Amino acid sequence: MQSGEYTVGQLATAARTKAVTIRYYERQGLMRIPTRTPGGYRIYRSDDLDRLLFILRCRHFGFSLENVRELLQLADQTDAPCAEVDAKVARHLDEVRERLAELQSLEAELQRLSRCCAGGGIVKDCRIIESLSRDIGNSKTPACTP
Amino acid sequence: MQSGEYTVGQLATAARTKAVTIRYYERQGLMRIPTRTPGGYRIYRSDDLDRLLFILRCRHFGFSLENVRELLQLADQTDAPCAEVDAKVARHLDEVRERLAELQSLEAELQRLSRCCAGGGIVKDCRIIESLSRDIGNSKTPACTP
DNA sequence: CTTGACCTTATAGCAACTATAAGGTGCATC
DNA sequence: GATGCACCTTATAGTTGCTATAAGGTCAAG
């Protein structure tokens, strides 16, 4: 193993991820097939580290592995127009905003649910259980108004 | 099949879910084991519908099946104190708020990323790809200031 | 008694890993 | 050269909450 070369574990450490994840990315066609030592150990170089970091940054932005695969393909075609990259990011942003809206209304509902129970009673009288047993989501009159 | 009784498909329709989901909940120990017709068809009654609706409402609130299992157990012990129910809901609300915060910062980051690309260039000059290739999340100077 | 809609089970797949088992390699030390 | 230990290899199963498929059986109507 020469300088500037990494085993899978060293690459993992350098990118703050795990060896299993790198091998998984290889099986999924995201990481390139590396060369091997005579004994079969994977050998990575700095461009593999770049590629891994690119993947991890995309993941950090919430892109699926499928999306990352596509982004990698686009990034490799340096002369292609970047409208597709732009569109992919925009679409992903839309999806994130959608999930955000869902989670916000979920938070509001849960907060309402949470305030139903003062905390000192028994299950039989618990307004939370009552709320979960009736269809509070669809009723016009709320299950409880704390 | 008498009135007030349901096949799995009828129960599914009544609860606006699917038969496979009900059978799945049975395997996971959420729905009770139903009686069967001589031919082996599951027969449900209205309390099974209540239980299914309870499960689906919990799911709507984002509880995991594991949580729902626990909530069902608590709901069955009508004389137990409901502090545990209260705590479970509060903990879940905390988790939802955490995910919400993560998603909000993700949205901000993605929006910044999105504005990096004007849309007319080629991949080689694309600020988005550049941003994904550099570690913009950890750099003090932003990858681009559109 | 046939048709057709429904039911039954078992099994595999999805995403993105994580965990486990059983064994092999590389390198330093004795 | 032998030993020890950290690390590597593969294959396989598990996670969550379903969904899809296959191959077959049942029910009720006509």
From TrEMBL, chains A, B:
Record keywords, A-Z: Coiled coil, DNA-binding, Transcription, Transcription regulation
**InterPro entries this protein is in?**
DNA-bd_dom_put_sf (IPR009061), MerR-type_HTH_dom (IPR000551), MerR_fam (IPR047057), Tscrpt_reg_MerR_DNA-bd (IPR015358)
The GO molecular function terms of this record are: DNA binding; DNA-binding transcription factor activity
List each copy of the HTH merR-type domain by range: 5-74
Query: Which stretches are annotated as coiled coil?
Result: 89-116
**Record keywords: Signal included?**
no
Q: Which PROSITE patterns match?
A: HTH_MERR_2 (PS50937)
Question: What Pfam family does this protein match (any one)?
Answer: MerR
Its recorded name reads: Helix-turn-helix domain-containing protein
The record lists the lineage as: Bacteria, Pseudomonadati, Pseudomonadota, Gammaproteobacteria, Chromatiales
